[in-house]
């Protein structure tokens, strides 16, 4: 890293410290609502979850945070190091308030819980539940300690059909010993008269639970229960060697590049910042129809002139959009223009506002919608000479914001394609642009209902919620089947993450975001991706004190992905064995004179050895670039390639890119 680059990131780090410090890599990894998700042992995440549970009398009904019985109403990160989440809910028709927290100042190894109610609640009790997957803990032991002794049991690999109880005891500490691991895990809590260890497979859940009773029986009016859970993660968890085998795919896949969305909160210096720092292969933006035609220009949908008055004078917002389109155009990358919603007069129930989902477009207004889209694009072409590469309706399958059946979208797309052809617009149509990887059936139905499927020039999906490798591969297979390139037009973890913005500062979030990028490329074999977003929305960059602050880890990871793409790239097949915490994606390309290559390794666990086979011929050495908690896009050592393979050790909880010298300067 150059001195200029080092100073740049030091400034960014200082700007981000106020929030990022509380979201650092502490030993307890959390869900957005403050529940424990996993415990880091020697940098390896071990899945252990917590929940507050309120069973009704006789356990006829059970209320808990994980079952959405409570709503998250507030979050607070205090300078003293206490991070808290506040929840409210109704238990047995009575309002109950919860506070969950983590004490960061003690090393982030203690959780706190408070329960309050102003009205009596008839319950069997209140419990802190600790859940552990059978796949990790089967065959291990659990020991419950109390002042008068201890009770021990083995967590059964096979469920006992006669009893789901593994152990019942009083206690104040539980020691978990994992099978084949010298890694005792200690849980401490205030003395409880009842600690139940049970096997949940009887109810179809592949887990064990420890139920720590915080209260036996009902809650009285004005009751307040406070408890804590300390987690001691002392021990080692040696990471297995990751063996990565590279090969050419049976069906070669070209890769244009990583890219991003500039849809919302685009009118800040952050847009110029990310456009200048990231080499985008694709770009996506919003086509704001409400700004273009807030009132119907006339009653003739065949009149393509658009609003008679100067639309920019009527709505200065249009000028800001035009400025953005020009900036995107100058990048020289394909641009997707997507419609979220339209002017209110188009919809069945006008006046409900931009953020309303499931908007219905009446059949009588479909021609007006087509006119609105086409006239806007003609205006943009006339004023700035810009035509988007692709057009789409955003997430019509889910109704964000316009809801259409697959057949309705097919009919609308047919009308739009005809209008584009009539007016000589070069913009192609995306098939899909669906809300998640689970939208493939909708995409199939839409294409099957389209009289001329040739109107579509690419397929698109969003990654929200993630998917299994088989689901990703199904998209790749469909892309090959119909002969269209596949695009991931919104790459992000969960669509609701903007409602819990503190997660953007967690290192665990950044690593899982990087792993998602790798899975999409390696399994779905897309031609391009678009990160959501490259504006302050979703906080990969933010505006602070009038300047731009990039999130140290998340933005540095994007620099790896965006800027280390070889020319004329193709996606190699990267098969990983031996270590499930390591993800990989490989890109090869270059020029006639020189082969270029990049392998991205996302290590979700501890430091480990890596053996890499199948490196393309003519590559003599690879240089590492590393982003982790304590370094951002830092150039590491160069490792020679011998007989198309290398062996090296990679750091834990990091993104490591191995690349050829010709690409390093692009960082």
Main attributes of the structure:
667 residues, 36 strands, ten-stranded mixed sheet, 37% strand, alpha+beta, 13-stranded antiparallel sheet, disordered N terminus, globular
Topology:
Elements (H helix, E strand, L loop, with lengths): L2 H18 L7 E3 L5 E6 L2 E4 L1 E7 L6 E3 L5 E8 L4 E10 L2 E10 L6 E7 L8 E9 H4 L3 E6 L2 E6 L10 E13 L6 E16 L7 E10 L7 E9 L9 E6 L6 E2 L1 E6 L6 H9 L5 E4 L2 H4 L18 H4 L2 H14 L4 E5 L26 H19 L5 E4 L12 H17 L5 E7 L5 H9 L7 E7 L6 H14 L3 E6 L15 H18 L3 E4 L9 E4 L2 E4 L1 H12 L5 E9 L4 E9 L4 E9 L4 E6 L7 E8 L2 E10 L4 E6 L3 E6 L1 H4 L3
Helix pairs in contact: 7-8, 8-9, 10-11, 11-12
How would you characterize the overall build of this protein?
The chain starts with a helix and ends with a helix. 22% of the residues lie in helices and 37% in strands. The strands form 5 sheets. Strands 4, 5, 6, 7, 8, 9, 10, 11, 12, 13, 14, 15 and 16 form a 13-stranded antiparallel beta sheet that branches. Strands 17, 18, 29, 30, 31, 32, 33, 34, 35 and 36 form a 10-stranded mixed beta sheet that branches. It contains 13 helices and 36 strands. Helix 8 packs across helix 9 (440-448) and helix 10 runs parallel beside helix 11 (507-524). Strand 1 and strand 2 form a beta hairpin. With 667 residues, the chain is an alpha+beta fold.
């Amino acid at each position: 890293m150059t001195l200029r680059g080092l100073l740049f990131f030091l400034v960014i780090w200082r700007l981000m410290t106020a929030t990022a410090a509380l979201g650092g890599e502490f030993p307890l990894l959390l869900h957005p609502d403050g529940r424990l998700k996993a415990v880091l042992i020697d940098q390896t995440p071990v899945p252990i979850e917590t929940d507050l549970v309120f069973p009704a009398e006789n356990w006829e009904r059970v209320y808990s945070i994980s079952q959405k019985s409570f709503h998250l109403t507030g979050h607070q990160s205090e300078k003293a190091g206490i991070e808290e989440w506040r929840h409210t809910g109704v238990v047995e028709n009575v309002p109950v308030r919860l506070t969950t927290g983590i004490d960061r100042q003690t090393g982030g190894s203690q959780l706190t819980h408070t329960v309050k109610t102003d009205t009596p609640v008839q319950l069997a009790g209140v419990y802190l539940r600790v859940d552990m997957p059978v796949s990790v803990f089967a065959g291990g032991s659990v020991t419950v300690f109390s002042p008068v002794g201890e009770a021990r049991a083995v967590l059964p690999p096979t469920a006992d059909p006669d009893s789901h109880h593994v152990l019942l005891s009083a206690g104040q500490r539980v020691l978990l010993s994992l099978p084949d691991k010298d890694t005792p895990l200690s849980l401490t809590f205030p003395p409880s008269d009842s600690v139940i260890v049970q096997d949940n497979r009887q109810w179809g859940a592949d887990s064990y639970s420890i139920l720590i009773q915080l209260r036996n029986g009902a809650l009285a009016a004005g009751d307040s229960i406070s408890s804590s859970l300390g987690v001691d993660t002392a021990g080692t968890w040696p990471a297995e060697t990751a063996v990565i085998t590279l090969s050419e795919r049976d069906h070669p896949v070209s890769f244009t590049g990583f890219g991003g969305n500039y849809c919302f909160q685009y009118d800040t210096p952050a847009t110029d910042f990310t456009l200048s720092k990231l080499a985008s292969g694709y770009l996506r933006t919003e086509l704001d129809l409400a700004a273009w035609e807030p009132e119907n220009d006339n009653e003739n949908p065949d009149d393509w002139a658009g609003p008679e008055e100067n639309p920019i004078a009527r709505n200065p917002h249009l000028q800001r959009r035009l400025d953005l389109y020009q900036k995107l155009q100058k990048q020289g990358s394909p641009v997707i223009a997507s419609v979220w919603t339209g002017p209110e007069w188009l919809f069945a129930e006008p006046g409900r506002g931009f953020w309303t989902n499931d908007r219905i477009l009446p059949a009588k207004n479909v021609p007006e919608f087509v006119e609105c889209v086409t006239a806007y694009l003609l205006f943009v072409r006339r004023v700035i000479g810009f035509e988007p590469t692709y057009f789409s309706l955003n997430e019509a399958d889910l109704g964000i914001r316009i809801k259409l059946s697959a057949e309705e979208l097919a009919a609308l797309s047919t009308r739009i394609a005809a209008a584009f052809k009539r007016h000589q617009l070069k913009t192609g149509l995306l098939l899909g642009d669906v809300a998640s990887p689970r939208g493939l059936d909708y995409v199939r139905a839409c294409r099957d209902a389209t009289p001329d499927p040739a109107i579509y020039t690419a397929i698109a999906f969003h990654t929200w919620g993630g998917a299994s490798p088989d689901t990703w591969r199904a998209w790749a297979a469909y892309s090959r089947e119909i002969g269209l390139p596949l695009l991931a037009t919104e790459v992000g973890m969960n669509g609701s993450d903007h409602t819990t913005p503190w997660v953007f500062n967690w290192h665990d979030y950044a690593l899982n975001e990087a792993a998602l990028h790798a899975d999409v490329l390696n399994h779905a074999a897309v031609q391009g991706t678009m990160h959501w977003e490259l504006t302050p929305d979703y906080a990969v960059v933010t505006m602070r004190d009038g300047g731009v602050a990039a999130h140290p880890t998340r933005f540095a990871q994007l620099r790896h992905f965006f800027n280390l793409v070889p020319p004329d790239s193709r996606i190699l097949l990267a098969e990983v064995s031996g270590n499930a915490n390591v993800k990989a994606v490989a890109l090869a390309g270059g020029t006639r004179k020189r082969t270029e290559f990049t392998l991205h390794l996302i290590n979700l666990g501890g430091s480990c050895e890596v053996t890499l086979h199948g490196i393309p011929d003519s590559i003599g050495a690879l240089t590492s670039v590393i982003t982790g908690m304590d370094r951002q896009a830092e150039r590491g050592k160069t490792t020679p390639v011998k007989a198309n393979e290398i062996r090296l050790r990679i750091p834990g909880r990091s993104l490591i890119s191995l690349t050829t010298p010709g690409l390093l300067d692009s960082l």
